[in-house]
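Q: Convert this sequence to structure tokens.
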Amino acid sequence: MRPAGAYRIAIEQSLCQGPATSREAASRACLSVVDARYTLDNMRRAGDVVRTTKRVDGVKRPVPVYALAAGVRESQPQAPPGAGRSEMQFPPVYWWAE
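A:
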């Protein structure tokens, strides 16, 4: 199985703070709402996230609220330290060429 992507890890970390709507999860993860919505839908189909609904004043339809499924934190591998976007990993051939 391939490792989780950056968007999935960011959404999972945002949902560790508690259940959230797609807009709240996007703002916590610093992603666009569209990217967060598609990532949450993929995570829901994979069984990593559970979707419930709640009523919000001023909105006619129920708003979906996402929460981590039970046991997801223990089973999902976390990103290794220093694997963020700020550090670029180059193959040794680049260092050899310098």
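Confidence is low (pLDDT under 50) at residues 84-88.
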